[in-house]
Amino acid sequence: MLKPEEISRIAQELRITVLDMIYKARSGHVGGSFSCAEIITTLYEYFMNVRPDEPCWPDRDRFILSKGHAAPMLYAVLSKKGFFEEEKLYTLRQLGSPLQGHPCMFELPGIDMSTGSLGMGLSVGVGMALSARVTGRKYRVFVLCGDGELQEGQNWEALMSAAKWKLDNLTVIIDYNGVQLDGNVNDIMPLSDIESRLKSFGIHTFKCDGHNVEDLINSIQAAIRYDGPAAVIAKTVKGKGVSFMEGQSAWHGKVVEDNEYEQAVKELTGLLR
Asked: Which fold has domain 4-270?
């Protein structure tokens, strides 16, 4: 098992990989991929029981990237774990590539659920967690949602179901970066006190710094140990690691130009020293 500082370094290295992927593709969502780098890396490097050489192993833990536009970071993590060769990363969004703009479970090993339309991932996660209970399997289901995504009503129906069925094998993680496609979440459709709102739906909550791996590990461990469905509210920064991207809605899915790419690589590489 890797140490927190090792996981943190991998996450930062994968930000550079994702930047390269998106720059080559001239398309892709860099801001939301950067905000969840530590979250996804920590799940796969510390918590999830998976077999890259047997991606459909029935007892594997499941991961659903409900905020499917952050697919580049998930692809980078899966490649790092050995689900497919690294060279394939640089076919992102190219015609015929299995690395589509949003994850497709029928095209790429390691993808447990096709996601794209925001708000659907949590409902599928509830179904997977219920399936594990019915079939007697011990796998755990992790669902990563965006905060803007929680404006979709379907999430709250799913949370009510998770609470009713006391799904202690379901862990929800919220990438709480405060920014969505068109601006700040609080300006577009405020979530108010998200912690209190989750609790009112019967979901126990834990809060952490989503870029601090040790903090993430402690919070996710606490959520796993909780006797019921739990959510980790991970405070993050959209576009984390690149000064001109951080907290900017314009970088939800903006094309990276040559001069921007060079500056971003310089800043991201500097953080590795």
From this structure: Rossmann fold (3.40.50)
